[in-house]
Amino acid sequence: MVAPALKTRPLAETFGAEVIGVRLSGDIDPDQMNEIRALWLRYELLLFRDQEMTKDDQVGFSRLIGPLERHLREEWLNDTHPEILQISNIKKDGKPLGALADTEVGWHYDQIYLPRPAIGSLLASVVIPPQGGSTWFADMTAAYDRLPAALKALVDGRVAVQSYAAFNAQYSTNPNEKQNAMSPDLTHPLVRTHPYSGRRALYLCPGMTVQIVGLPKDESDAALAELFAWTIRPEFVYCHDWRLGDALLWDNACTMHRRDPFDGAHDRLMHRTTILPQPDRSVPF
Questions:
Q1: b/e per residue, 62-73, with b = 16+ CB within 10 A?
Q2: Which helix (DSSP H) or strand (DSSP E) does residue 248 occupy?
Q3: What's the burial of 32, exposed, middle or buried (CB within 10 Å: 0-12/13-18/19+)?
């Protein structure tokens, strides 16, 4: 028996959908899973409300999309499920349980600083403050499609330097020597071709993109500032206000995101799994 088509509700003008009535825990019907994958590629960002996922559930569901990466910040990985990165302001024995989450973090792509960047991320709320907190997402496919001709000509065929060090200097704590060695500055194309859909999207972010190769520094800075401002125009952006039980699955090849600060007097804990392309799609551009 074929599972009924999933019901969706749009979240923003160009991307994003809430998938209604789906449980990500336990065994998922294969036909339903295929539809979830198709919706993920179509909408780039999927919201699942009222989830009751265990850590096993989150890891298992994420693996149905692709192999999982263990984040290089091993001090923030879950003790029993190291595939899960903890994002939290909670401290244990005086040390942060995860990436600090009561301050703002600017626009970024997950793992844009690695040679083989992630294709997806699944973020689930575990402990939520009274006011939840907000995470913003930008549709970089639509931003590229609607890019003014002069800017499109500028980015096509060019590469830019991506720097995890620049991100940490603004928004996080410094990695240790081993982690620094694993994340040197590198270059990626400014336009990423999706390994599954073939669609093209801008692949740059204020948090980590520091230089367009081949342009003088002043010209690069001016071009990046114009591009950054373009990508966060209201028609390309969705703001998510978190509730307990929310899970967000986004396409990390074509969306960037940021989080708002919240009252650090309240605990917050999020679990994130990071999904890599399937081995037969290992070339990310």
A1: beebbebbebbb
A2: strand 247-251
A3: middle
Residues 274 and 85: beta-carbon distance below 8 Å? yes
Distance between CA atoms of 165 and 177, rounded to whole angstroms? 12
CA dist., res. 173 & res. 157, Å (int): 33
Question: What does the DSSP 8-state code read for residue 173?
Answer: P
Give burial (CB, 10 Å; 0-12/13-18/19+) of 179: middle
- Gap between the Cα atoms of 170 and 100, Å rounded: 13
CATH number of 7-279: 3.60.130.10
CA 128 to chain centre: 19
**What 3-state DSSP class applies to 275?**
strand
Q: For the chain, list residues with pLDDT below 50.
A: 1
